[in-house]
Amino acid sequence: MTSLNSYNGITPKLGKGVFIEPSAVLYGDIELGDDASVWPLVAARGDVNYIRIGARSNIQDGTVLHVTRKSKARPDGLPLIIGDDVTIGHKAMLHACTVGNRVLVGMGCIILDGAVVGDDVIIGAGSLVPPGKRLESGHLYVGSPVKQARPLTEAEKAFLPESADNYVRLKNEYLQQT
Ligand SMILES: CC(C)(COP(=O)(O)OP(=O)(O)OC[C@H]1O[C@@H](n2cnc3c(N)ncnc32)[C@H](O)[C@@H]1OP(=O)(O)O)[C@@H](O)C(=O)NCCC(=O)NCCS
């Protein structure tokens, strides 16, 4: 088995310096920006729609990424779009949603179809974002279903690109070992 697999003749495309850990499995129409990283046991299927992952974003261990097919009700279906400098914690599930830039998706979060997460957002571990829910930029959300908890502090906002940078450094170390 290889990490990068084609579906309908389309194979995932990687930017410069991308790290895909060999146990991750990616299918189809997926594009990753420069310096993005995908960690052990991630499953990502860009089969019935497409997945885009921005520069310097990291998808941590055991996360599942999928999309929604075209239908009469939704002629374009729904892709999965993840912005730049995003940290997706361990074992999250992102399904056909849109995530902005500099977002931290806590471990074990579930984000459902059509949800839109603004820029500079933290979603607490174990939270559930319902279908179509919009999370306002610059805020912390927690709970199942998520509720807005408070605005992020300046320190938390500064931490979001730092978290992405930490993972860029870590994946560079992994790349040097292979
Ligand atoms: C939400 C979070 C950011 C902490 O925010 P905080 O404002 O500092 O929260 P505190 O620790 O002060 O706790 C405030 C309240 O929120 C609750 N809380 C904390 N984390 C929570 C979560 N994930 N879901 C629901 N409630 C949570 C606390 O129990 C506390 O409740 P109380 O006021 O009734 O006692 C943190 O707990 C979290 O989930 N971080 C995500 C870490 C992660 O998954 N990283 C991924 C990369 S590895």
Protein model, in words:
- The chain is mainly beta.
- The chain has a single domain, classed as Hexapeptide repeat proteins (UDP N-Acetylglucosamine Acyltransferase, domain 1, 3 Solenoid).
- The protein is 13% helix and 35% strand.
- The strands form 2 sheets. Strands 1, 2, 4, 6, 8, 9, 11, 12, 14, 15, 17 and 18 form a 12-stranded parallel beta sheet that branches. An 8-stranded mixed beta sheet has the order 3-5-7-10-13-16-19-20.
- β19 (139-142) and β20 (147-151) form a beta hairpin.
- 40% of the residues are buried.
- Residues 87, 89-90, 104, 106-107, 122, 124-127, 142-143 line the site of coenzyme A (COA).
- InterPro entries: Hexapep (IPR001451), LbH_gamma_CA-like (IPR047324), Transf_Hexapept/Carb_Anhydrase (IPR050484), Trimer_LpxA-like_sf (IPR011004).
- It holds the Pfam family Hexapep.
- This is Gamma carbonic anhydrase family protein.
Main features:
178 residues, Gamma carbonic anhydrase family protein, Trimer_LpxA-like_sf, Transf_Hexapept/Carb_Anhydrase, single chain, twelve-stranded parallel β-sheet, UDP N-Acetylglucosamine Acyltransferase, domain 1, mainly beta, LbH_gamma_CA-like
Can you count the helices? Answer: 1
CATH topology descriptor: UDP N-Acetylglucosamine Acyltransferase, domain 1
Basic shape: globular
What level of helicity do the residues show? 10-25%
What is the second-level CATH architecture? 3 Solenoid
User: In the residues, how many domains can be counted?
Assistant: 1
Strand content: 35-45%
Pfam family, one: Hexapep
Protein name: Gamma carbonic anhydrase family protein
Organism: Zobellella endophytica
